[in-house]
Amino acid sequence: MHEKERHRIILSAVQDRPVVTVAELVTLTDSSEATIRRDIASLHVQKKLRRVRGGAESITPPQFVGLAGRPFSVNEALHGLQKRAIARAAVELCDDGDPIIINGGTTTFQMVHPLASKRMQIFTNSFPIAEHLLKHSKNTIILSGGVIYREQNIILSPFDNDVTRNFYAKRMFMGAQGLGPLGLMEADPLLIQAEQKLIGQADELVVLADSSKFSSRSSLILCPLERVATVVTDEGIPDHAAQMLEHAGIRVIVAAAGAAQEAATASG
Amino acid sequence: MHEKERHRIILSAVQDRPVVTVAELVTLTDSSEATIRRDIASLHVQKKLRRVRGGAESITPPQFVGLAGRPFSVNEALHGLQKRAIARAAVELCDDGDPIIINGGTTTFQMVHPLASKRMQIFTNSFPIAEHLLKHSKNTIILSGGVIYREQNIILSPFDNDVTRNFYAKRMFMGAQGLGPLGLMEADPLLIQAEQKLIGQADELVVLADSSKFSSRSSLILCPLERVATVVTDEGIPDHAAQMLEHAGIRVIVAAAGAAQEAATASG
DNA sequence: CGTATTTTGATCATTTTTGATCGAAACTGA
DNA sequence: TCAGTTTCGATCAAAAATGATCAAAATACG
Q1: Which of A65, A99, B8, B236 is the S-S candidate for B211 at Cβ 3.0 to 4.6 Å?
Q2: Is the pTM above the cut of 0.90?
Q3: Domain shared by B21 and B93, yes or no
Q4: How many of the other CB atoms lie within 10 Å of CB of B199?
Q5: Which residues of A touch B56 (CB under 8 A)?
Q6: Residues from A in contact with B at Cβ < 8 Å
Q7: Would you say residue A220 lies in a domain?
Q8: 10-residue mean pLDDT series, chain A (268 residues)
Q9: Structural domain boundaries, residue A25
Q10: Is the CB of B35 under 7 A from strand C?
Q11: pLDDT category, B263, cuts 50, 70, 90?
Q12: Cα–Cα distance for residue pair A192/A166, rounded to 1 Å
């Protein structure tokens, strides 16, 4: 990875959280601690960020208004590490130029950092994702139109005739509240509405779900398991869940913290 | 392959991605590293791109959409004071609960500050306006869907069937490049496209134009003067311009720095 | 057609960047 | 305070990128 590319990713990451650790940046950029430290030092003298012990922080402290006050912050710390690894593995599925859809959510939001050094066509219904990518990447951003719901941070239109129908992607990436034999589960009716609108606008549905999602239950079923092409999860996935997915013909990618590797591919 | 041909390819590639490596360009042009380096060096002195170790990057100098306050760069400082006064007077036309449209632009952006204390239904095609209002107000924000154009900071859909058609407002607020007997003038074709889409989705068209706009000329006519219901401007408006507007049956509001007052109302 | 000039590609020494190691310094918790 | 852990910075060797040089190829020109 090139210097500029790393710098872009580092600056992207530093906006997202109060502090980014050297270790996080190492996994995010696939380079050594020494290099990250040099990068941070370099960006520090350029006044692009502030160097702190253990990592780096944004140069503009009160800048987190947009990211702090939302429900994003709750789950964030909990499975943060896995989420980032999962997001990174998901981005590795993409090439420059690909048209993709990213459904809003805390897990999918983590994709913005590895995406910072890409140049893709990204359709999203998430205002924060669009905002971050607009500021920290050169990707083409296409936004879904409609009312911005502050709590969920998604944009939703009650009409069927919006730009969503004019965008067709290679892949759609989404999170989920739960993942069981009955299918993909979601808790918030509003999110259901947003997601159902997007499913069907992509060849391949990729679900990002950390291992806790396999034990989580929810009342609303979004779509059957068969609709899902790929699941990206972490090493904590229970055996029975892996078997369930495999049985449904789903490709399972297990993202290790630091690297991503393919674990199983079931025949269709 | 000719030199010019390679240069075209290199410049194209550099626009396409945050950073292109020498190796990438070698495969892209079927020439040697030495040649690519010479090309990059040549284009570097021509200021067509920036030479970085490992390759080249786009020459986007301070192309950083401000996080905090400065989403637009150039016009900002010029008529800042008047613009703010005009924007303030424009907002005073509105009441809580009103559905309004705000077309993106440097003048209309100034409306966000007085709007911070309102609770209205605001439709906009401007990402920075939406961002600011989302973070600093409790207004309901409805966003137009489509591609986000970074330079103009507006969202534009090539399709006619988007949410825009489902929103109808009491007033639409917009800036303009110029305002003459022939009508409302704009310089950027992209902005024209965005504005024409919105005009017609509101009862009343309100144009925010500081007094310099009456002497400014531009090639593209957006709409005839008769379509405009109200013009908000500053004290520097020339007499002939005021007469012209009055003659067209336009209500003219002159915003003094510090207060807004109605100056003239022409009968229809 | 033949010569002069320019452009290109290859080789190699030099410089820059990177990653690993290890002692020093800072932080943590008792 | 002190021991244990983490983070840092310096150093060094390996790898990568670069620049210079020169011969071959392409092109221009008389």
Answers
A1: B236
A2: no
A3: no
A4: 17
A5: none
A6: 2-5, 8, 15, 60, 63, 65-66, 96, 117, 119, 127, 130-131, 134-135, 137-138, 140-148, 150, 155, 157, 159, 161-166
A7: yes
A8: 86 82 88 92 91 87 40 47 86 92 92 90 96 90 93 85 85 94 89 88 95 84 94 93 94 72 33
A9: 3-58
A10: yes
A11: very low
A12: 20
